[in-house]
Amino acid sequence: MECVDDCEVGPWSNWGTCIKNNKTCGYKWGLETRTRQIVKKPAKDTIPCPTIAESRRCKMAKRHCPGESERDPNYYVYLPNVQK
């Protein structure tokens, strides 16, 4: 019977900063991510390593960025004038 070398991963990092579109403000919701490192790669033809990164939805601390209007022009969707 052969000994199988399974993947080993380290502990999860702390959750990262809540961001959306590379910003920490300007939105109500964003994503935060945490990661872990592969400590030992698995032997060939064995079960792959488990997930090493995961993200979850988070509420952003400030909804509007300093110096920006409270009404984000990108919030509104342009609807062309439709003729009947």
Automatic annotation (TrEMBL):
Gene source species: Scyliorhinus torazame
- Ranges where the Spondin-like TSP1 domain occurs: 7-61
Name the InterPro entries on file: R-spondin, TSP1_rpt, TSP1_rpt_sf, TSP1_spondin_dom
Protein name as it appears in the record: Spondin-like TSP1 domain-containing protein
UniProt xrefs under Pfam families: TSP1_spondin (PF19028)
Arranged from A to Z, the UniProt key words for this protein are:
Disulfide bond, Glycoprotein, Signal
